[in-house]
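Recap slide: LruC domain-containing protein, sequence and predicted structure.
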Amino acid sequence: MHVRHPLLTSLAAIALGAAAQPGLAVTWSHVGGYDTNGVPKTLVDFSKRIPPDLLNEIHTRLPESRDIRKNDPKLITDDLGANITLLEDAEITVAFVYEGAGYRNSLGYFTFDPANTPTSASALNPKVMFPNFSLPLLKFGDAVELGKFKAGTAVGFTVVADGWKGSGVNPNQPASMIFHTLKALNPEPPGANNLNAHTVLLSKPEDELLVLGFEDMNRTWSNSDHDFNDALIAIKVTPFSAVDRSQVQSLTKEVKDTDGDGISDDLDAFPLDPKRAARRFYPSATGFGYLAFEDNWPSKGDFDMNDVVMAYRIIETLNAQNEVTDLKLTYEITARGGTAQTGFGIHLPGIERSLIDTATTKLAIGDRAPVALPAESGQREAVFILAPKLPDLAKTGERWPCSFFNTIDNCTRRPPVQLTAEIHFSKPVSTSRLGAAPYNPFIYRSQRGREIHLVDRPPTDKADPKLFGTGDDASNPAEGRFYRTADNLPWALDVPEDWKYPAEWNDVADAYPDFATWAESGGRATENWYLGNTNEGLLFQP
C-alpha cells in the first residue's frame, strides 16, 4: 500500500493524548448537549434524505462477521481515502445508520490540515457527536449537524470503544480502545497487514452521501471479527462536489467487465472471451446421466437394456445473450451387452449442418488427440457419428460370455471408454432452437438405417422408414409416435442420474418392478421408477 502521509513506526506506542492516557482524566468536548442516556439534544431527522435500503447496500459491501482482509482488503486505504478532505467550503451532517456492537460506543470527529497530518493523538481534540451510539436510543436517520468547514480542511472521526459509562464518555478510557481514521495514531502496530486501520469510508454519489464503517475492537485481540460494520454512519457534505473522492472507495462494488460483453467478471465463466459468458450442465456439473439401449428393435429382444449403456454429461456454453455457442458432450461406454455391430450418434434437431463450425468441431476417444468430427453427409440437420463401430471400442479380449463388456457379474470389470465431442456453431443458436439435453442420441444396428432412439425422438434422414410398424414396434410417424411398443415400452432409456443397469439377460421390468407401470402410463406414473423398489440381484454390480 502507498502511504500518502508517512508516519514514524513509533507512533503506535505514543500515548493518545489526555483522552487516551489511563489515569489522566479528560473532559470531552461535545457538538451539543445530551440527555441522561447519551442521546444528543440537537438531533435532526435525516431519514428522508437517506435511501431506505442503505443498510442493505452497506452489508453487501461490509458483510456481518466477514473479515475485511478476506472479503475485500482493497477497502482499506491510505489517509486520503479514509478521511474527508474538502476542496471547497461545505456543511457536514452526520446521521446514525446502524450499530451491531456489543459495546456502548462514543463517536466523535476532528479536523486537521491534510498537508500537515497530526503525529500525535493529543493534537486531535475530537468533539463527541454521539456520546452513546446505541440502539434503540438512536434510530435510522437521527443526525447531528456539525456546521460549516473551510476549503482545505480535512475531517476525521474517532470511536471510543465502550466509551459511554452511564453519565458521560469515560475520561480514563485506555489507549487500546480509542481508534481514529488516521491509522498511524491507533494502538496496533503499523505494517502491511493494516491492523491499525479501523474505518472504511465509502462513497454513494448518486445520493450524494458518504458512509463510514468502524471496527470497534482492538484488531490484535482474538475476538475482533474485522468486519468494519460495528458502527455505521452516513455523512452528508453539501455541496457534495466539495469532497475529494479521488481515493475514496465506492459503496457499490466496482463492476469489472474485462471482455466488455455486459457480464461482470465475477459472474462471467469466460471473463476474457466476449463471445462466451456461462456454462449450463446436464444433468449436473459433477454427475452423469445414463443412456441405455436395447438393440433388437423392431423386435423386443431380451429387454435387458444393456446392449449399449452410456454415461453422459453435457455442457452448453452460452454468450451474454443466452445463446448457445458450443457444446461439450462427454459419453462413457459403460456396458456393451449386444453381439451385433452397433454405432452411436447424436442428432441435433432443428440445427442445420450449415450452422456447424467444421474447423473447430472435434472428437477425442480416450486419451487420444482430438480429430475432426464432421457432420454426417446426406442429412439436412446436424448429425454426428461418434462411434461407427462401437464394439471395437469396448472389447474385452475374452471368450463368450465374458466377451460382453461389463454385463456379466462373474467377468472382469472394465473401465469405461470415453468419447468427448466438442461441437462449435458458426453462429450462436437460441436455447429454444437447440432444445433440451440430451437432444437426440441414438444407436444403429448392423445397417445404418436401423436406428434406435429414445421414445418419440425423431429418426434422422438416414433411418429406414420401412422398419416402422414392424415386429414389436408400434411407431406412427404421422402422429409423431416413434420407438414404442403397443404397450408404450421403449427401446432406449434416459436416466438423468447415477443408475445400475440390469445384468445380462435380466428384463429391466423384473429388475425395476415400477418400470412397466411408468412405461405403460407414458411416463406419467411412478416417474422415479429407477430410484427404489429394485431387485438388486438382477442388476449388474459395478
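The mean pLDDT is 89.
The radius of gyration is 36 Å.
(End of recap.)
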